[in-house]
Amino acid sequence: MENAIEIAFKTVEENPGKRIFLLSEMIHNPQVNADLSQHGVQFLQDTYGKELIPFDTLTGDDIVLIPAFGTTLAIEKKLNDIGIPTEKYNTTCPFVEKVWNRSAAIAKKIIPLLYMVNHRTKKQELLFRMLLQAPLQ
Question: Which of 16, 22, 49, 63 is the most buried (most CB within 10 A)?
Answer without folding.
Answer: 22
